Amino acid sequence: MSSDASGGLLVQFSDDLARVVETAGQAVVAVKARRRVPGSGVLWSPAGTVVTADHVLERDDDVKVQLADGRELAATVVGRDPSSDLAVLRLPAEGLTPAEFGSAESVRVGHFVLALGRSGPGAPSASSGIVSAVGGPWRSRRGAAIEGYLRTDLTLYPGFSGGPLIDANGRVVGINTSLFAQGHGMALPLNTVRRVAEALLSQGRIRRGFIGVSTQPVPLPPALVQRLALAQESGLLVLSAEPGGPADRAGLLLGDILIGFAGAPIRDTEDLVAQLTAERIGTAQEARVVRGGEPRQLAVTVGERQ
């Protein structure tokens, strides 16, 4: 291939990329709700719904959103979910052009992607890279069930959190966040974003259960595992129970080892959090514990985390 042809292809690719950023950038907004650099957000619907990252909201009032055309509108916080680092805002505007959405399921390792952010009117800021990993279901440090994640090798510059991760066609495939992977580009996939956004729009929050215990994983003695015919080698040592909380009312004590809950084995904190779903709030669930080397069953009514 001649240098002229090669140069022509590169120029064409560069021009196409600039057009993709320009088009997709029309649905990227600046979210002004903190003292530092504004965060970013995505126009989610023509009715003025904006999805952004929760951690860019340092306040719930006096939130401003600036559109690509320079208009700055007062935004209402519809709902926030710190566990998944997502929030939904509503603007007093109709007929806005929302982002075009792709499918996170179609994204594969090696695909070219861009992160977009906005700090003011005009052209958005952009960063490019490839998808370096597509992860399966996991649970955030704050207890959110995340259907998956997209890890990239691009740079999330200050203010990019809450903005979109787009594919080569300019379609949104995720929402960028710097909260869960310090130093790495990471995006929450659309299935997670849609689920959380719909819940926040209908309920204003995400309901999550809790039983009010502080725990740490501990290995179980082999003799105990054999005697109780357990299919696990660890459990959760109860360090404390919140006074008046669900576990305290059920009779869980300091030093108990939680080995099962709601019919599922409990080996670590993630196992317990996975059982505290919204559907179980207000229901009594069997907690299996080891106390003084002997198994016990206690009925714990799952509370709601506030």
Features of this protein?
22 strands, 37% strand, Thrombin, subunit H, 6-stranded antiparallel beta barrel, elongated, 5 helices, alpha+beta, 306 residues, single chain, Pdz3 Domain
Describe this structure in words.
The chain has 306 residues and is α+β, with helices and mostly antiparallel strands. The protein folds into three domains: 3-90, Trypsin-like serine proteases (Thrombin, subunit H), CATH 2.40.10.10; 104-191, Trypsin-like serine proteases (Thrombin, subunit H); 209-304, PDZ domain (Pdz3 Domain), CATH 2.30.42.10. The chain is built from five helices and 22 strands. The protein has helices at 3-24, 190-203, 222-227, 246-250, 269-275; strands at residues 28-32, 39-43, 49-52, 63-66, 72-81, 86-90, 112-117, 125-135, 138-139, 145-146, 149-152, 164-166, 172-176, 185-189, 209-210, 213-219, 234-241, 257-261, 264-265, 284-291, 294-301, 303-304. Strand 1 (28-32) and strand 2 form a beta hairpin. 41% of the residues are buried.
How would you classify the helix and strand content by structural class? Answer: alpha+beta
Uncertain runs are: none
What's the total count of β strands?
22
Number of domains: 3
Order of helices and strands: HEEEEEEEEEEEEEEHEEHEHEEHEEE
The CATH architecture of the largest domain comes to: Roll
Q: How would a crystallographer describe the biggest sheet?
A: 6 strands, antiparallel, barrel
Output the number of helix runs: 5
In which order are the strands of the major sheet placed? Answer: 1-2-3-6-5-4
